[in-house]
Amino acid sequence: MEAGLPIKVLLPFVIAILMFGIGMSLTLGNFVSLKSAPKAAVLGLLNMFVLFPLLAFVLAWALDLPPHLGIGLVLLAACPSGSTSNLFTYLARGDVALSITLTAVSKTLPVLTIPLYVGLASLIFAGEERSLSLRFADISERIAVVVLLPTAAGMALRHFQSGWAQRIRPYVTRIGVVLLIALIAALVWRERNTLPGMMLAAGPATLALCLLGVACAYLTATLFRLADEQRITLILEICIQSGGTAIAIAAGILGSPALAIPAAVYSLIMYLVATMIVVGKRLRSAAPEAARDSLSG
Q1: Which of 261, 200, 236 is nearest to 73 (CA)?
Q2: Partner of 274 at 20 to 30 A CA spacing, among 110, 241, 263, 281?
Q3: Is residue 297 part of a domain?
Q4: Which CATH number does the domain housing residue 259 bear?
């Protein structure tokens, strides 16, 4: 499962457009919870970029996954949280400010985490698969060009030309999203005969990663006595990963679409799990409210 020339050329360009849009969306206000709720913010980032990738390594080893699935699982875990985590946090009556902070910070850290973790996973799991031998320096260079520089350019434009940046950002983001969807759809269509089997093979590992990540976030938040709103926020930030980023990086930057299979499967699973979490949280919150209403009535 190799990326064709159009995918290799166009996907990095599309990623750069999206990261430029993300850079224009970042302001100091996005990072407010680092100061107002430092314990929750630091604990959330540790869950997202230390414990979650560690779970991916353990699962890839314990389940003896094929190299492309093992490395792809680690790539997924090293990516930022999905922006829809803010919406799910709001629906679950969590700490939306904390969610926005964690999501914003998570957009900047993969410049370090993806080369580090994917390079290490390649050393551990690639074996004889020379096409999956990914060196830290090579990954870092590609990520810096396609992710770091456009993000920094977007942030600089927002800082020096705020009004103009806010006007063009929605259009830049929409163009990037449409192009990304089109390219991923083309890739899926090209691999339509082999994709179902590969997705079935990745299913147990991705489901286990999602559930164990949620459990880990719950346990650490409880252990450190975070407020209920902060705990549900950490859970959802772990649960909802940016599968699109992982798919784009796998196919466009790393040149190996097979690494995107875990992200594609996880993207389906995470919304089901997140919805169940939100419904459970709202039902649990509704019970005391109903009891208070009956007593007051």
Answers
A1: 261
A2: 110
A3: no
A4: 1.20.1530.20
**Model pTM score:** 0.80
* 227 domain-assigned: yes
Average pLDDT, whole number, for the chain?
82
Question: Who contacts 134 (Cβ-Cβ below 8 Å, separation ≥6)?
Answer: 71, 118, 119, 122, 126, 254
Query: Quick check: is 170 in a domain?
Result: yes
Total domains in the fold of the chain? 1
Placement of tokens 């990516």 in the chain: 79
Assess whether pLDDT exceeds 70 at residue 232.
yes
Range of the domain at 72: 5-286
* Residues 217, 233 contacting (CB under 8 angstroms): no
Cα distance between residue 43 and residue 226, in whole Å: 10
pLDDT tens digits along 50-99: 999 999 999 999 999 999 899 999 999 999 888 788 888 888 888 888 88
CB atoms within 10 A of CB 131: 12
The secondary structure of the chain in percent helix, strand, coil, rounded to multiples of 5, reads: 85, 0, 15
Contacts of 76 (CB under 8 A, 6+ apart): 56, 206, 209, 241, 243, 246, 262, 263, 266
